[in-house]
Write a structure and sequence with these properties.
This protein is mainly alpha-helical. Helices cover about 65% and strands about 0% of the residues.
Amino acid sequence: MSTEDPGTPAPPCPNCGAAGAARFCPQCGQKQGAGIPGALAYLHEIVNHYVAFDGKLWRTLWLLLARPGMLVTEYIAGRRQRYVGPLKLYLTFSVIFFVLASLAPSTEVRVAVRPDPGSAEQQELEQALEDMPQALRRTVERALAEAERNPAVPAQIGQEIGDRLQEQAPRAMFLLLPAFAGLTLFAFRRRPQHYAVHLMLALHAHAVAFLLFILQLALPAAGGKLALLLPLWLLFAFRHVFGGRWWALAARAVFASASYALLLVATITAGVVLLATGLH
């Protein structure tokens, strides 16, 4: 038996002032009577808002892997509440990957500054130096001489470059998401679709990529072979979302994957060069 007085009206919502706000405000949806949240409540809110660990995750994960592209068509059809949203799904797997990657043991980096005298590597190095322009050759020779005087410097610089690139990797991949969506939009330019559809597909593709990265951490022997599954996933996703002949879809998947890989390599190369220049 309820002890509440049915004649006592619920207090107005402190957020929007709507009357009849019991547990949740019927106007703005804010939870009532929460008071000042503690640290654990803040942590729970952040995890619940940006990362999915509820029952929706497993339903979404199954559909993401077993039926590539179906999450996009389900979202377009308005069936969204039962699944994790595209952005939240991407953030979930990216957070899991970078947490696991930070906990993984680092490998020791050893740098051979100059090959053994008289070896084939030494002859190739001398030939490469002779083929360089004079100004560039002097710069390389000075760098080699400095590295010989202090062998720890190259390893330290390489470690620092790797650390900084790892810190910037989530932001870089997130910034490349619109570019990936633009590539798929261009590949299907004769089939008008909203850019948001391609952006949603890009978020799902990046979620799959981070899932493959997680598997690669668990199965290091697989090497980069797991990355070959991403173009295959993209092919089936194209088939489900856009339809068409398999050979045409395969050509589009190869174009999008290869173009994005070149863009990624160019971005990483530019980052390495800028970091190396700043650290020199």
